[in-house]
Amino acid sequence: MKKILLILVMYTNYMFCQLVPAKESNIEFLATFGSNAKGTWGDDDHTQVFFISLSNTQKDPFYIRIYDPECGGKNDQINTAFNTQTKFTVYGGNDCYSNKDARQVNPSGNYKSGIQLGSKTFNNETIYDDKWYTFGPFNPQEGELDKELNGYVFKLIIEGISGDDGNMYKFFVSTQADNNYAPEGTNAFAYEMCFRINAQSPNALAHLYPFIDKNVLSVRQYNFDFDSDGEIRLTTIAKKLHPQAISKDGTWEWSANKVKDEEKNTSFDLQISKKGAKSNDMVMYMVNQYNEAVPFFSNPIGGKPKYKYKIDVQVKQEK
C-alpha cells in the first residue's frame, strides 16, 4: 500500500494524540478477545495492531500508558470464568511500519516486524484492574523514521494469546510516566479496529475517521458482528449520512462507495448508531480500489468532515 501522503504532516504536526480511542469518537473501549473466543463475541482474529506517529521534532522520551490491561475486572467481557491472557508488545526500528505485512487487516506474515522494545502479558491481576500500566520510557528516535509522516513511527500489538474472554482497554501516549500529557504532533492509527460501542448512550453516535489520499477512486467498508444493532452511515464533505450495509451476529458485511475528486485528501466519518442498550463489540476496516487497507486515525486528519451543501439556484427568464 502507498504510504500516507505528505499532506498529513501539515495537520498532524499541530494535533495532540488524546486517549485512544479518543473521547470524541464515543467508542467505549478497544477490544481484544482470547484466542479461544468465538467470532460471535465480536473479534475476528484476536489481534489488534496500532501505529503511533511522533513528530521528528520530539526529543524528550515518551511513554505508552495502557488503561485496564488485565482481563478479569469490571470493564471486561466474561464468558464462563476469566481465563484470558493478553499480550501487549511495543515495536520500533526499521521495518516497524514500512513492512507491508504490518499494514494488513489480518495478522499474517511478518506483521511483527521491527525491533521489540517492550512486552508484557496480563492475566486477571486485580492490581491492573481499572488502572494504568506504563511502557517506557522510549527515545522517539527508536521508532522508524518515515519521511511522508515527517516523524518516527512505533507499533503496538495486542494479542489474546489464550482464553475466551474479552479484554477492554484504552491507551495514551504521554511524556510522563504517571500522567497523561500528550507530546505535540502525535497521532495514532490502525488499519483494522475491534472495539466496544458505548452502552450507556444507545442513541449516541460512534465515529471512525479513515483518511482518503489523492489516489483513491473508491472504497469498501467492512464490518463484522454488528448484530444488526443499529445503523452505519458515511459522511464526507460531499456525502451526507449515506447508509452502509450492516452485519449480523458473527458475519461480515460490506458497502462500496465511490470517491469524488473533492473528497480526496480528506477524512471520512463512519458514523455508527446502535439501538440496543447492551454493549456491542465489533470489527471494522476499509480498503481502496486496489484492496489496500485505509488507515483509521484517532484524530481525523484535517478535522472532522463537514458536508458542504450545494444550492441549485435556477433563474427563470422572462419571455
Explain what this protein looks like in three dimensions:
The chain is built from one helix and 21 strands. Mean pLDDT is 91; it is low at 1-17 and 311-315. The protein has one domain. The chain has 319 residues and is an all-beta fold. The strands form four sheets. Strands 6-3-9-1-11-20-14-17 form an eight-stranded antiparallel sheet, with no helix packed on it. The N and C termini lie far apart (58 Å).
Short description:
The chain is an all-beta fold and 319 residues long.
SSE order, one letter for each helix or strand:
HEEEEEEEEEEEEEEEEEEEEE
Find the count of extended strands (DSSP E, 2+ residues): 21
**Rounded Rg:** 20 Å
**Number of structural units classed as domains:** 1
Helical segment count: 1
Structural class of the secondary structure composition?
Answer: mainly beta
Strand content: 35-45%
Question: What is the oligomeric state here?
Answer: single chain
Helix content: under 10%
Strand order in the sheet with the most strands: 6-3-9-1-11-20-14-17
Q: What low-confidence regions span 5 or more consecutive residues with pLDDT below 50?
A: 1-17, 311-315
Mean pLDDT: 91
Largest sheet: 8 strands, antiparallel
Terminal CA distance: 58 Å
Shape: globular
